[in-house]
Amino acid sequence: MDKLIPDHLPIRLTRKQAAEFLGVSVPTLARWASRGFGPQYFVLGGKARYEVEALTAFIEAAKQIR
Hints:
Layout: E1 12-14, H1 15-22, H2 26-34, E2 42-44, E3 47-51, H3 52-65
Antiparallel strand pairs: 1-3, 2-3
Helix pairs in contact: 1-2
């Protein structure tokens, strides 16, 4: 498994888990989503869910910008 992804993480994360993974606050992640920025997510049961692969892709893309 990718070294960025701890073995204990589920494949799909809640917004709170995703925010912790990225090192940002939940409101920041929600704001990004409302503005069409940030990692890809989907809605399941009325709640945002983030796939770990989408989060790592977002991190890698951010590294490329700098």
